[in-house]
C-alpha cells in the first residue's frame, strides 16, 4: 500500500532543505485548511475565508464567540504541535492533555485537559465510547501500545491507529475530534511527513471508517483514508519544488 507514498516521501526528503518562502507558504496553506476543515467537521459554520480573517485577528459578524475561539485555539494547538516536533519530545499523555487544554481553552475551562466524569455518546455511530471509570485504564493501554507494538508499524498506520484508538476512547467531554486530528498530524510530522487534511466533504467516509474500526477492530479503511491524504500532501509539496 505504501510503496508509492514511500517513494514520494524519499523524493521530498532528497530535496530538503526546501526553499524558505515555499515552505512558509505551504505551511500557511495547509494550516489554514487544517483549521477550517477540522472545525467544520465538528459543526463550526465559519467559511475558509472567514477562518482566514479570524486567524488574522478580525471578528466576523454574525458568528458566535465559540466559533471564533475554536479557530484561535486550533491555531495555538498547531503551534504546540510544531514545538513538540521541533524539540523532538517523546510522546506522552501529558501532551494529549495539553493539546486538549489548548483546544477547549476559554470554551469550557473546567473540562480543558481533564478526562470526563460522565458517559457520552457519538451521534450516528454504533460504537459507544469508553465509560468514564475505565478511561484512565484505556489511556494507559493506549500509551503502552504506542511505546511497544506501535513502534513496529509504518508511520502512517501508527498515526492512523493512534487517532482511531484515542477517539474511540473519547476521553474528554468535548473536543475529542479536533484533538485526535492534531495527534494524527503530530505523529506524521514527527516522522517527516507534511500535515494532512481530513476534509469536511469526506466527513461521512471518515466517520464510517472510524466506526468500522471501533466496532470490528479492522482499521484498514481508516488507514487507507489517511494514506490517501498523506499522498495528497506529499503531491502538493512535490509540485511546489
UniProtKB/TrEMBL annotation:
SUPFAM superfamilies, sorted: Fic-like
Coiled-coil residue spans: none
PROSITE patterns per record: FIDO
UniProt domain Fido: residue ranges: 91-228
Pfam families: Fic
Transmembrane segments: none
Gene3D superfamilies recorded: Fido-like domain (1.10.3290.10)
PANTHER family: FIDO DOMAIN-CONTAINING PROTEIN, FIDO DOMAIN-CONTAINING PROTEIN DDB_G0283145
Protein name per Swiss-Prot or TrEMBL: Fic family protein
Organism: Solibacillus merdavium
Amino acid at each position: 500500500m505504501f510503496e508509492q507514498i514511500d517513494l514520494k516521501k524519499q523524493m521530498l526528503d532528497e530535496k530538503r532543505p526546501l526553499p524558505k518562502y515555499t515552505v512558509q507558504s505551504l505551511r500557511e496553506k495547509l494550516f489554514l485548511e487544517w483549521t477550517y476543515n477540522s472545525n467544520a467537521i465538528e459543526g463550526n459554520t465559519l467559511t475558509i475565508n472567514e477562518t482566514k480573517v479570524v486567524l488574522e485577528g478580525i471578528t466576523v459578524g454574525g458568528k458566535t464567540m465559540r466559533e471564533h475561539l475554536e479557530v484561535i485555539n486550533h491555531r495555538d494547538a498547531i503551534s504546540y504541535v510544531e514545538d513538540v516536533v521541533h524539540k523532538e519530545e517523546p510522546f506522552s499523555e501529558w501532551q494529549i492533555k495539553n493539546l486538549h487544554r489548548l483546544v477547549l481553552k476559554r470554551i469550557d475551562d473546567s473540562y480543558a485537559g481533564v478526562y470526563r466524569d460522565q458517559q457520552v455518546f457519538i451521534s450516528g455511530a454504533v460504537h459507544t465510547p469508553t465509560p468514564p471509570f475505565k478511561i484512565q485504564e484505556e489511556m494507559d493501554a493506549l500509551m503502552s501500545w504506542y511505546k511497544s507494538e506501535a513502534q513496529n508499524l509504518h508511520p502512517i498506520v501508527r498515526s492512523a491507529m493512534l487517532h482511531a484508538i484515542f477517539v474511540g476512547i473519547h476521553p474528554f467531554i468535548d473536543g475529542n475530534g479536533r484533538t485526535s486530528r492534531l495527534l494524527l498530524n503530530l505523529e506524521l510530522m514527527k516522522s517527516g511527513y507534511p500535515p494532512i487534511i481530513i476534509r469536511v466533504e469526506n466527513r461521512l467516509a471518515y466517520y464510517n471508517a472510524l466506526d468500522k474500526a471501533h466496532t470490528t477492530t479492522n482499521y484498514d479503511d481508516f488507514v487507507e483514508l489517511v494514506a490517501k491524504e498523506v499522498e495528497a500532501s506529499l503531491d502538493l509539496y512535490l509540485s511546489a519544488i
